[in-house]
Design brief:
mainly beta; 228 residues; 3 helices; single chain
Length: 228
Amino acid sequence: MRSTGLIAVIILSLFCATAAKAVNWRVLPGGLLEFSIRVADQRGESFLVTGDIPDWQAWISFDTQDPDATQVCVAIDLSRTQTDRAGFDAEMHSDTWLGTAAHPQAVFSAARAETIRRGQFISGGILELRGHSAPVDVRFTLFAGEGQVHVTGSALLDRRAFRIGSRIGASSAGYDVLVTFSFDAEPLASSTDQAGGPANDDSYWREARRYCADSLDAGRSASGKMGS
């Protein structure tokens, strides 16, 4: 499911819904979610390890005119994550690092965003990774196209917040992990209920609630944007 449906996200004029409600967005196939960390070998020589996370899904509700009403849920399957250093992959999945046997999934959720400047935004949310949760700021830029948008962004994580490589010092592996992403998204067509009014959002967010129920419900209560 290479980005067929966080972590994140996200999404000028194409994003403008009505003043009353943000737009739900479908992330199109072909998106990228990657990370990089600087490590050192036994001789003390430093090099950059980059990794690809092929399996993730995102549910996004966003309006550039009302970013405070943002809702984001990104479910990330870490089990097929691989790096450009084949010899490092097994260690990366071990309990010392990602511990994917016990914690195969990470989740990013956010219930608001802020405008930095035209077309650039920041969304503060919570990342659940390796059984630990920590706040994460995701910065993203959107480029309006014909009927869709292109989104690029990044987040800087401190691996210590998630007990990743907790016994490994900075001289062997940097504490900072840079996560980058890019994807195309299109607005979901508006649907109506039998009475001709707007359809309830639950059909879009039902699966997302499996991963982000607490944050989505909290955001809905605060903003009044989510359907019951």
